[in-house]
Amino acid sequence: MSAPSTATDGEADDGPLLDVRGLRTEFRTEGGPIVASNEVSFSLDRGETMGLVGESGAGKSVTARSLMRLIDSPGEITGGQVIFNGEDLLQKTEAEMRDIRGNRIAMIPQDPMSSLNPVMTVGEQITETIRRHQDVTKSEARRLAVESMDDVGIPDAEERIDDYPHEFSGGMRQRVLVAIGFSCEPDLIIADEPTTALDVTTQAKILDLLNEMQEREGTAVLMITHNLGVVAQTCDHVGVMYAGNLVETAELSDLFDRPRHPYTRALIDSIPEVDTDYDELPTLDGAMPDLGNLPSGCNFAPRCPHATEACRTGGDPSLDAVGDDSSRAACLHADDLDLSESTVPEAGAGRRDIDRTGEPLFEVRNLKKYFDAGEGILGNVHLSWEGGGLPTVERRHVKAVDDVSFDVYPGETVGLVGESGCGKSTVARTALRLLEPTDGEVYFEGQPLHELGSSEIRSLRREMQMIFQDPQSSLNPRKTVGQIVGRAMEKHGIATGEEKRERVGDLLERVGLSRAAASKYPHEFSGGQQQRVAIAHALAVEPKLIVCDEPVSALDVSVQAQILNLLNEIQDDENISFLFISHNIGVIRHICDRVAVMYLGKIAEFGSIEQVFSPPFHPYTESLLSAVPHANPDRETDRILLEGSVPSPINPPSGCPFQTRCPKKIGDVCEQELPELEAVDGGDHYISCHLSEEEMSQRDSFITPSKRAETSPADSD
Amino acid sequence: MATERETDRGRFTITQSQRDRIARFVRKFRSNTKAMLGFSIVVLLVLVAIFAPIIAPYPIDATNIEDRSQAPSVEHPFGTDDLGRDIFSRVVMGSRISLYVGFGAISGALAVGAVVGVVAGYAGGLTDEILMRVMDAAMAFPPVLLALTLLVVLGPELSNVVIALAFVYTPYIARVSRSAALAERNEAYVEAAVARGESDSRIVFSEVFPNCMAPMLVQGSLNVSFAILAEASLSFLGLGAQPPRPSWGLMINTGRGFMETAPWMLLFPALAIGIAVVGFNMLGDGLRDVLDPKVEAIE
């Protein structure tokens, strides 16, 4: 399990499998060349897993693609060596490279939805790779393909090999891609964000699969990811990239225990962990510099809390060994900085107390939203001939939201958490009447929203605002920031003219932008800044409730922490309520007072953070929480991996919606009766399950009292 | 609500950002050979049309039986026609007719088509179905045939040509603006506007519309060339401009009879049509490259 020491020179008998030396990749642009991968050097031994982490734009994907020589114009590899099995890949001809790609070095791409050809069966796509590189007959290739599908855990591989990609779920498609990657028994697999597009429970299964495949085949893996949790779970050693440079390489445990570069420290700290309390997330100011306009000194200096004059002027430091351990860091002060302690303030006072004695601000009762299945006017009509006789006409619906009730009190943050397709976004949009509800009641300060006419709703919109996932899309590209924010004030008659401009400026400063930002267009800002504009837009009308729909999931972790802190701060000052939708359990844990866990359009569990993250658990909550990868290699939870995938909401299972996948299913009662959302432990903690309280309490709380409690030893193999 | 009508546009003078945006557009436009070439041709045509009476050496209807059917010479650079009229003067004056019909018809088509398309794309559902099926029905006829039918009803007159062609090209503009609006409709800023409490009409015209302008402009400038061609065809068939007006299509029609004895009667008006069509086409293509939002986003 312990990683072999990383030799920087190919000293020993046959040297490392992959030795990258001074790799440099540039892109030509109008404003001069941009160095996307700058003098990157690292090595990887056989059978070893190395992680390459960094935020978007750090150059990790470019580096990985450069290894396979997959850089297209205007990009160009301008220097360095890529020694693979003793040969420099950069000296090979294109024809020789084609024999290596997919054969000796394979890639597992990020997006399982677009990486498979929709008009070819998965079998054809696997055999295609095999027959390209191995001299085998068609039937032999097919046999190998079935075998490789079996290996990656696709059930009934023999039958499913002739299916098309759309007949597989996202997780299964990713397995097909893994099968293609491993099909020629390569020496090296480059996995480019292999789980980013997947839900946590699916992600956990794919990571397990990768670990297992690697163990069995002895393949080396280069894992590209932005998620330190994934790194902690899979890698032996890690390289951290920032603005095109490799800033630190270290063995996994060293990286987390004793990071040598301040950026690594900051990256680890800014992730909200499931089991830690924070008042405020530690953040880095600003964002990664534009690659076309790098600072003169160390690239990280403008954001570094330890930067000195030498850092700001001395040019970019090189990646050098630190002290006597195997870590290397590109930092002038790597030898004299001790970064082993996290800068997280120790568990603070936690969340404020919420007064829930009065009337709730926002109340949703038995909300339902059904969409017609299929397209067009008659698309949802379905004929069935069950039981003979005349065919019966049936209207089919997608039950996106099915009988959901919850409330939000003033100043409170209520989270909606669940995997993609569980209906959490639909709940928010239906509750705000951005979509017409099929049934149910929604009250805002006692006013029945579901009964109001459209003009009354429009004037109530002042009280309820929304922040969207993708800030780039939520700001009109043809309007200046000042027009966007000011329009909301004009619309609701809050301010006009000079006063409005004054207020827009104040608001922009409030969210951490300059007043001058008002005259700029949205595209001139980075993603984090755009989200700040979106927050200013929501605040402009002084609302009482803001619905945040995945507001940080499009952002990098260091920026995510800034936005979460800003939201918290605003709530403290203005006593605004948030309805916070996210699939990220860590974020929910950090920002919410109460949380509803959703599965297939229904609420499985609802209660305060402490209640939901501690026993008794709904079995789904339990597996969801256990699947979250910890950004800490010392702590490994006992994960529950769910079988199968989420059933279709057109035809949900009978009884409890979770019964088809539930590891604790007790029998017929689960299949026949829909469990009520009932209060457990006598309070305001609700669970919808047939199990008894004891049966739901077999696991310890996910909230550990002390920070570095040792749990069962890591067992990632 | 009426008191809030005041918009920012009048009060902010042009900001640095807007200047940058215009500068970037100009820079990209100038570096695009196709766009610049098309633009130059169009500008040249417009200048010729404006100064036509000054440029043209002879009146368009000055017949001179003695000089008829003369080959190009110093006095008559494009030669003379069967009635001894100077073809150069007529081609120059004819540019006015072509541009009048081209711009006139497409402005009309843009005014109607853009609104229909954006409303259909934004509203969706039944409104979309009805509006677009009407457009499809109009589109089912070949453009020239439809214009021909309309002209038979309206009477052969140049202003009627403009009306007929505006009608013919409306569905093309509508289709393009509908698909642009459909794409914009799913952007979150539309939902943000709904969540802010904006009315539908405000969202359509103030939020969605400006974002659909680029494809409309491209389609519009391409269609100007089709309209010029269509006017020539209609005049050729005798339903457009009436003699003695110097429409290029009409001149070709007359020249047809003298193809063997006086080919210049046909050649020069045809050349003029070709240049005008190529010019507007290149401008449209170039604009498409320059205005492509994907290209803009990367920068």
Provide structural commentary.
In chain A, 28% of the residues lie in helices and 21% in strands. Chain A is built from 22 helices and 26 strands. In chain B, helix 6 packs across helix 7. The model of chain B is unreliable at 1-12 and 294-299 (pLDDT under 50). Classes of the chains: A alpha/beta (717), B mainly alpha (299). Chain A binds chain B through residues 30, 429, 432, 434, 457-462, 464-466, 468-470, 473-478, 480, 482-483, 486-488, 490-493, 496-497, 519-521, 523-524, 534, 537, 541, and chain B through 3-4, 6, 8, 11-12, 15-18, 21, 187-189, 191-199, 207, 210-211, 293, 296-297, 299.
Q: What fraction strand of chain B?
A: under 5%
Rg measurement of chain A, Å: 27 Å
User: Helix segment count of chain A?
Assistant: 22
Q: Low-confidence parts of chain B, pLDDT < 50 over ≥5 residues? A: 1-12, 294-299
What spatial form of chain A do the alpha-carbon principal axes imply?
Answer: globular
Class of chain B, according to the CATH hierarchy? Answer: Mainly Alpha
- What percent strand of chain A? 15-25%
Q: Give the helix proportion of chain A (percent range).
A: 25-40%
How widely separated are the two ends of chain A? 8 Å
**Overall structural domain count of chain B:** 1
Number of helices of chain B: 13
- By DSSP, the count of extended strands of chain A is 26
- Write down the oligomeric state: heterodimer
Rg estimate of chain B, integer Å? 23 Å
Mean pLDDT of chain B: 86
- Describe the sheet with the most strands of chain B: none
Superfamily at the CATH H level of chain B? MetI-like
Structural class, from helix and strand content of chain A? alpha/beta
Named CATH architecture of chain B: Orthogonal Bundle
